[in-house]
Amino acid sequence: MVKNKISVYKDKLQPLEKRIADLVSRMTLEKKARQLDMFMGSGIVDKMRTMTAISPDGKFAPEKAKELWGDVGVGSVHDLYPVSAENGR
Fold first, then answer.
1. Which in 3, 18, 19, 87 has the greatest CB count within 10 A?
2. Do both 41 and 81 map to the same domain?
3. Does residue 45 sit in the same domain as residue 59?
């Protein structure tokens, strides 16, 4: 019986530098460039209260994220806060 070998980048027992090198070697140039990109949070949520505050009943909208990012992913999402952030809580 052959066990599935875990990828180096997923192996917590490997040194961090080795894990990073393995992960980066697997990424395409497009994926590496996309890691530098940021997207506004309002573009991936179904209901916003303000430009940056998600509605109490708002949810992540995977179909919107797929439309924006495709299968490549994104480095980060900015300006997406719960309503409590408006009140300084």
1. 19
2. yes
3. yes
